[in-house]
Structure formats: structure tokens, C-alpha cells
Amino acid sequence: MRSRLRQSPSPASDSMRQVMFGIHHNALAYAMTTLGAGMMNSIFSFYYVKLFLNKYKISEGAFHQSQVVYMIWNAVNDPLFGYIQDNSRVPCCSKRRLSILYGAPFYALTFLLAWFPWRSYEAGDWLSGVHLIVTLCAFDGMLTFVLLAQCALFAEISTHHENRLTLIKYNQVASLIGSSSVLFCGLVSENMDNFANFQSFAVVVALLACTCMLYTGFQSTSPYDCLASKATNKAGQRDGAALSLSSVFCMTKQILTQKDFVLFVSMNFFQVFLLAFCNNFTMIFAEHLIPQNVLPSFVKSIMYGAGFICPQLLVLSSQNLLRTLGYYRVILFTFYVEAGAAVVMFILGPQHYYILALFLTGNMVLIQASFSLFNLPLADIIDADLYKHKRSTPLSSMVFGTNALFTKPAQSLAPMLVVGILNQVGYEKLKDIAAVSDKGSLQELHDVMFYLVCLWYGCRTEILGESVRPAFIQSYLDTETQAFLNRSAEKSGCLVTQLYHSFVSTLFSPFMSRTSINGYLGRGSMFVFSPEQFRQLMNISQDWKSKRLLDLGAGDGEVTKVMSPHFEEIYTTEVSATMKWQLEKKQYRLLGIDEWQDTGFQYDVISCLNLLDRCDQPVKLLKDIRRSLEPSKGRLVLAAVLPFHPYVEIGGKWEQPSEFLVVQGKTWEEQVTSMANGVFKEAGFAVEAFTRLPYLCEGDMYSDYYHLDDAVFVLRPEE
């Protein structure tokens, strides 16, 4: 692949000699499909993930299911259509220009499927999942049918390197113009905030794109089309044997045994993954990581447009480099630059907003620019296959299709993995809450987007209210917490286990809650405090004992185990069946969620850890706890994730609770003060002590662990 094959001229080489007024008309006709497809594909890939996640409110389970279906269809349809186009006797399939001509209108129609909801979707609506599956499969099916024919044209119009560079040049100009659709779409629709304008713009783009591709269908020429037509007219020349299953396996095996093809596909898989990652998530990351007052909406629109336009400018300006150095060295150099820029950005951190904006844009540009050159090595592979196996016509569509069989799954894996990572730290919940525009309320999500873990235990006491300031206890990272982090890292490092967990989680997410899945798998243990931190917070000694502990929402019982040495009787509650099983294994007494309040006795300590924001009736819960505590010495240990964002998971959907606690303030300290002076006081509690701790969870294949900011209170009943 690094060196060009030297071949004698073929009939196809004359197809590039049609020059008039300095314009290669066949190259122009070829590039018109790129123009039309570029306008549609840029908008589709850039906006569809945000549309279905944010506007249609698709659930994570339905999103993953649609991506799995899309991944399978995306991989299968390329070699299927490739084989049909290379071997079919039907003119609309065997002739490249006719495939584009007849496929263009359907391609444009499927582009419009995404932008018009089938009804007004509720959060987690099953129909939005069906909508996404139909949209992805229909759009990708027509995209594959049309663009495979165009890719075959690239290899068949000419075998000369100079002519192919001319095609690349025309193609990049067309792609440059087509990619600008993202820029204009962002400006017209205010980055999809004005959805009616967005829909109108999409219809205009579909009409223009269809017209461009029809021009290719009417005007493009390939000598191999003529050869194929003559071959089909010869008696018995292309009998049904050509379409036999054995011939499919034979030709596919011949393609797969080329060393250069295998190496190219391996590299292309990761490039497709990166490209899908950038196209689908640059907009989401930029909106969360770069404040509105730093880069306003119209500047971000220009930034997004530049990410699609500048790659073509870069390729056009690199024509001399491609001629002198060759595509291999140019592509390799871009890989080095991408890796180096990522390391530098990681070291600098996310607070340098302008550098971050430049990095996000530059990353899109380099990845897209290098990907634009990938037709050159594939065309060389097609030439090598034609020469090696002495074929009368090249297997252009089959080579492109077989390449897609192994690389297209990356288009689905990228959004699946990234959405899974973001939802682990609250993206699915936070995006639907009105308060998410508040910078403080999104800090945990931003931490994961730019993995910057800091200030786990810090508290700015000067911001605390005077009434609660004396009750603050400073905590630190201790040996027990560090041991939990080390165990989490070891578990996350077992790739086979994590792949199994990820597969099972995706498979069962439509039918089971994440808590139940974690209980079944024995993963996702939580860490709120160590034994030492618990004793410090409660102001007790190591040998202190009391009678009864009730742990509400005990999960797998690991946090209960921290408190249990200090109590004679331990009671727990839990909703998840799999977590109940875990608690019974640890021999804790299980009480029903409507039973613990009416047992006939009172508790010395009740722990309510990170349950208040996941409870449908938090006010009633606090009153029940107050009534169930021993009045003189009873204590409530309560942990709450701050910033406070309550939601309830009902049937796989995130719903607002029926009772809403009023928690004011933007910072951790302000919300602590608000809860102490408002929520707890109204429920009949006074703050005895509180601290700031990281609410830790075991990690997975993406991260060693996850964390949120907890405020852990010790509350005493007050008359």
C-alpha cells in the first residue's frame, strides 16, 4: 500500500480526458453526489444524537437497542449491496450512474425521517426508540446503496494516480460546499433551538441534495459500465452461477487474504470510531464545557461549521504534499498530531476555554481530513485485486463493502459507549431538568467530560450560613477509601469481565433498573464513608454500641457493613429484588418499604444515604423517620448528592417526584445551608454535624470509578 502499482493504461483512464473550459466534466459529475450527500450526512451525523437524546427524550436502553440494530444492519448492508452492484444483471444495480440516479430520491426522503416526530414524545417513549431504529436503518441503507456506487466510480473512472488526485480535488471542493450546511443550519435554527426553522432547512437541503445526485446519474460515465453491459448480453456469460453463494465466499476470501486490506481495515475501524465520536458529541461537549458568556451561540455555530468545512480546505491545500510525500506519510503525520494535541490539552485542563474550543475544532478537522484520503489506499487495493486475480472488471463495490463490514460497527459503538459513560454521571437525568443551565449543577457531568477530579473534601466555610458553620467536620482521604479505589481499579482492569457486564447491562436495561442489573452482576458497589469517617461524624469511639440500626435503601449492604459493628440489631429496606438477595446473603433483616414505620419499636440510628433525591415523597419520608426515631438519643445519618436534583425511576423512565423539596443556592455550601435551615428544620431536625465526602461507585471498562459530591449529615430530632 505504501507504493503505487505500475499498470498499463486501461480503457477507464480515458474517462478523465473530457476537459472543457478547464473543467473535467466527469470529475464534476462524480463530485455532485459528494455535494448532495455531504449536505445531508453532515447535518444528520451532527444533530441526530442530540435530537433523540434531548428533544425526543429517548431512554438509554432504547438508544442502545437502536444502535445495536443499526450496527448489525450497517455492517451487513455494505457487502450485500456491494455484491449486488458488482454481479447484478439489473441495470439500476449494475450500472453505477443508474444506481445513483434511482437511489437519490429515496436517499433524500430517508434523510427527512429523523426530523419529524411521529407524535409528541414523552420521556422514555417506546415509539421514539422505534423511530430511531427505522431512521438509522432506512437512511443508512440508501446512503450505502448510493455512495457504494459512487465509491466504485472513483476506482473505475481512472487507474492513474494523477487522475485520482483530480477526483479527490473535485470531491473536496464539493465536500467543502456540502459541509457548510452544518454552519448555515446552526445559524438558521440557532443550533436546533428553533426546531421549526431546522425542519424547513432540512427539507430545502433534501431537495438540493437530490438534484445534485440526479446530475451525477445523468452525466457521469465509466467505461466499465459499457463493458458490463456487453457482458450481460452474451449468452451464458453471466448465468446464475455468478450470483451463487460459493462465488460470494470465494471473492470475499480473495479480498480478505490481501495483507494490505487487513492492515487498512484495522486502522480504518479506529478512524471511523473517532470520526463518529467527533461528529456526534463535539456539540454536546462544547455546550457543557465552554460557558455561554465565553463563546456565544453564533460563535459556536461558526466553530461547528468550521469543523466540517476546514477539512476540505486542508486537503485541497495539501495536493502538493500528496504528490511528493504520498498519502501514507500524510495520513500517518495527522495521527501523530492528533495524539500530541490530545496530550497537551489534557495537561492544560478544561479551564482554558479558547484553547479547548480550538482543540475540539482542530480535532474534528484533522480526523475528517485524513479520513477524506482513505479512498486512495482502497483504490490501490482494488487495482491490486484486479491485477492479481486477472478480473475483467474490478470488484470495486465489493472491496468498499467488505471494508465497511468491519468498520461500520464503529459508527454505532462510538455513541453507545460515550452515552453510557455520560449517563453514568447524570447526563440522562440532568439534561431534562430546567436547572441544568446552572454551572454548579453540572459540575459532576463536566468532571467526567474532562476527567478532572479535585476538591473531593473541600468546603469554603465562609460561604456556609452562620447557624451551620460550627457543625462542619473536615474529612480526608483515608486508607479505607483508598483501598476501595484500588479495588475498583483492579475490577475495571479485567477486560473480559467488563465486556460481559456491559453486554448484560445493555441486554437487560429495557426490562430491569440499573440497580437490579448491578445487583445481579455483583458490581457497582457504593462507598459513602469509611468506618473511621463514620465514627468521626457520629462522635463515637470504636467500641461504642447501641441497640437498633435501620438502613433505608441499603443496596448491596456494603455501606451497612461499615455501621453494623456498633449495633445489636440491624434492619434494612430495599426495593430491588436482586439487592434484597444480596442483603439476605449478608443475613440482614429485611423490612418492607411500608413496614419499617410500624414495627412497634423505635430505632437508635436510621441511615438514609442518597435516598432523599430518589424518593417520590421525601417530605413524608422525613416525617416517618422523625416518628420512628428514639426521641432522646435517636439520630438520623442522611447523605444527599449536591447539587440537589430529585427524580424517580418509574418503569425505566425518569419522572419528577410528587413531593418537591425546595433547596436553594448554586454551590455545595449554599445548598447545605438551605437544607439545614429549610428542609430539615421544617421536618423537625437540627444539624448536629456534617461533612463533605465523595459518593463513590465501582467503575467499569470506561473508568476505574465514578463519584458525586455528597453532603453527609447527622441530624437529631427537635421539638
Automatic annotation (TrEMBL):
Main localization, broad class: membrane
Subcellular location(s) per record: Membrane
Topological category with respect to the lipid bilayer: Multi-pass membrane protein
Membrane-spanning parts: 27-49, 98-118, 130-155, 167-189, 195-215, 261-286, 298-316, 328-348, 354-378
GO BP terms, alphabetized: methylation
Keyword Transferase among record annotations: yes
Pfam family, one: DREV
Gene3D superfamilies membership: Vaccinia Virus protein VP39
Entry GO terms, CC: membrane
This protein's UniProt keywords: Membrane, Methyltransferase, Transferase, Transmembrane, Transmembrane helix
Record bears the keyword Methyltransferase: yes
One Gene Ontology molecular-function label: protein-L-histidine N-pros-methyltransferase activity
Protein name stated in the entry: Methyltransferase-like protein 9
Organism: Acipenser ruthenus
